[in-house]
Design brief:
β3 and β4 form a beta hairpin. By secondary structure, this protein is α+β, with helices and mostly antiparallel strands. The longest helix is centred in the middle third of the chain and has 11 residues. It is built from four helices and ten strands; from the N terminus they run ββαββαβββαββαβ. The chain has two domains: 79 residues; 66 residues, Alpha-Beta Plaits (2-Layer Sandwich), CATH 3.30.70.
């Protein structure tokens, strides 16, 4: 008998229930690279990542194989809306107050993170490593619920961009605006 464990994370400071896709995962590799490994059903979901759809029984073995290549995580959906929730190996953290560089580095070391970018004296983008020892969903929950120096922690999601046809306005003054 399988337990129905509630999976959740935080988005914009609010708790969000997630549903794990039984037959999909996201890997930080493009479809061309995955094709070289024999994975045909990969869809590009960002400039650096792909979603792989497979048989549910093949999910875990295939994920194990791609983890040797690049960061690999389950694909999720937001339970309430059905919107895809495709995590990456990066998290955005806003600290409650400005911290000296040494304290930010100590925080990163505590969680096995690499600071990729500082957007301000409170906002940083971190990348998970093998030393993090948990997936990004669990990390965001831990930071939000147990880390007093963190105001918010959020996922850097893979977002597929849609293209739309753009028609220039017919206003003759448009080019001078």
């Amino acid at each position: 008998m399988t337990e129905n464990i509630e999976t959740y994370t935080y988005r914009a400071g609010k708790k969000v229930l997630l549903e794990k896709e039984p037959d999909q995962f996201v890997v930080r590799a493009l479809p061309e690279t995955l094709k070289e490994m024999g994975i045909e059903d990969a869809e590009k979901v960002s400039s650096a990542s792909s979603r792989v759809t497979t048989k549910a029984g093949d999910l875990e073995p295939l994920m194990s194989m791609t983890r040797h290549l690049a960061s690999t995580h389950h694909a999720y959906r937001v339970a309430e809306t059905g919107e895809e929730f495709l995590i990456t190996d990066r998290v955005l953290v806003t600290f409650r107050e400005a911290l000296p560089t040494e304290e930010v580095d100590a925080f990163a070391g505590k969680y096995g993170l690499i600071r990729l970018k500082s957007y301000s004296d409170r906002d940083c983008l971190f990348q998970l490593t093998e030393g993090t020892r948990m997936n990004p969903v669990k990390l965001v929950v831990r930071l939000m619920e147990q880390e007093p120096i963190v105001e918010t922690a959020d996922h850097d999601l893979n977002r597929r961009m849609s293209t739309y046809e753009f028609v220039l306005p017919t206003d003759p003054a448009y080019s001078s605006q």
